[in-house]
Write a structure and sequence with these properties.
The protein has 461 residues and is of the alpha/beta class. It is built from seven helices and 26 strands. Helix 5 packs across helix 6. It is elongated, with a radius of gyration of 30 Å. It holds the Pfam family LRR_1.
């Protein structure tokens, strides 16, 4: 008896699914040489795991998360040529539950077998070399293929050695990251041979010496991070040639002299961190006001001196400003409150600033952190209870003995930053006659409206 239509439906559906998901032709397997190289690499970073047993089949069909394949035509000139699999990425070291690369062991060694992976594009090590000493391989050796595009070492404290002159041979390298290691010595001038480099991060090592004068030849660079090393000397003038640069971080080094004015040529720069160096006695650079794309500027821990310049009108996109402990004198410009409406973080602490806290700072409605402690500021704190409650403990005013706060504001907010600030006496509280019963926000709106009207009528010379 022929099967009913209802009983045949499951079989029909199964056939349709097989026709959709079953490949039309079988891809060739990964060649045995590359398969063996990957096994050896896995065993070098963790010999306690039976990799050959767990992943006994073709590694391009079943492999640990950090092993990635791609398919290439056997004859690149023939559009119909059959495809051959090759290993293109090896990432070692547990990162997260969502990116569980093969975990490294305390006895990890550098995988010498990667030299035979001719199509390798990315090599990544995260916390792999943490106990046993491992030397950074010679870039001139055959360990790294000429097609490598990303070489990444993150948090490998037992990795030592130096960057040698052969580093410039990687013409295809786009991303070089070496952070949190024990690598020392200077950056060789041959680094300018990395003409396709887009990211250079060498932070948190023991690198020293002066920065190469030809560093600016890396004209495709978008991110340069040399922070937390021992670099000395001056910033090379050639850095102004990096017209594609978005982020520049040279913080926590021993750099000195004047912050070069040709940084203003970097018109698309968004992040600038030169903090905790020895730049000195030239003031906060005026040219920062000519870099409208800046979002974060950190110069804390230098010896700049001088007053805060009036440069903020074109910097409305600023999110963070760090000018802690740089020897600033004079008043805080009211223009910072008028123009920096997007600011989230402002640090002006540990300077010699004086005068009042500008009432225009009440306009900084997005502010999450503001540090004004240890200056010579005086007078009444102009903030409303709404502003004070919004910023909370992230506003620090201590170490300004002549500052005072309205008693009512202390009672209404109970904010911790007000506990060590004295209560204003009557002479320090503005005359409320004109604005009787008005809130501080209304008074501020009236004040700004009057400024606009006076300016419009041309009453200011």
């Amino acid at each position: 008896m022929a099967p009913s239509l209802s009983s045949a439906r499951p079989l029909l559906l199964l056939c349709i699914l097989f026709s959709i998901f079953l490949p039309s032709h079988q891809q060739p397997p990964l060649n045995s040489g590359e398969q063996e190289s990957v096994y050896l690499a896995l065993e070098s970073i963790n010999s306690d795991i039976p990799w050959r047993t767990i992943f006994a089949d073709d590694l391009c069909l079943s492999a640990p998360h950090g092993v990635v394949c791609d398919y290439f035509p056997e004859d690149p000139t023939n559009a119909t040529a059959s495809l051959t699999p090759h290993i293109i990425e090896l990432s070692f070291g547990f990162v997260s539950d969502y990116s569980s690369n093969p975990p490294c062991s305390p006895n990890s060694t550098f995988p010498l077998s990667v030299s035979s992976l001719s199509h390798l594009r990315k090599l990544f090590f995260y916390r792999c070399f943490t106990q046993n000493p491992v030397r950074l391989p010679d870039f001139g050796s055959t360990l790294f293929g000429s097609g490598l595009e990303e070489l990444v070492f993150v948090d490998n404290p037992s990795l030592s050695g130096s960057l040698n002159s052969t580093i410039g041979k990687f013409k295809s390298l786009r991303r070089l990251i070496l952070s949190g290691s024990n690598v020392s010595g200077p950056v060789p001038p041959e680094i300018n041979g990395l003409s396709n480099l887009e990211q250079l991060t060498l932070s948190g090592n023991n690198l020293n010496g002066e920065l190469p004068i030809n560093l600016g030849e890396l004209k495709k660079l978008r991110l340069l991070d040399l922070s937390h090393n021992g670099f000395g000397g001056r910033i090379p003038e050639s850095i102004g040639k990096m017209g594609m640069l978005l982020k520049l971080d040279l913080s926590s080094n021993n750099l000195e002299g004047k912050i070069p004015q040709n940084l203003k040529v970097l018109q698309i720069l968004e992040f600038l961190d030169l903090s905790f160096n020895n730049f000195g006695n030239f003031g906060v650079p005026q040219f920062l006001g000519e870099m409208p794309r800046l979002k974060e500027v950190y110069l804390s821990g230098n010896h700049l001196g001088g007053a805060i310049p009036e440069i903020w009108e074109k910097l409305g996109g600023i999110l963070g400003i760090g000018l802690s402990g740089v020897g600033l004198v004079g008043n805080i410009p009211a223009s910072m409150g008028v123009f920096l409406r997007n600011a989230i973080f402002i640090a002006l602490d540990n300077n010699n600033l004086e005068g009042k806290v500008p009432m225009e700072f009440e306009l900084l409605g997005n502010l999450h952190e503001m540090y004004l402690q240890n200056n010579q500021l005086s007078g009444r704190i102009p903030f409303s209870s709404t502003f004070a409650a919004g910023i909370g403990s992230k506003l620090n005013l201590e170490g300004n003995p002549e500052l005072c706060v309205d008693k009512g504001l202390t009672i209404r907010t109970g904010a911790s930053f007000l506990r060590n600030v004295k209560i204003c006496n009557e002479s320090e509280i503005p005359n409320p006659t004109l604005f009787n019963g008005a809130s501080s926000s209304l008074r501020l709106s009236w004040y700004l409206l009057m400024l606009l009207l006076v300016g419009h009528l041309g009453l200011f010379p």
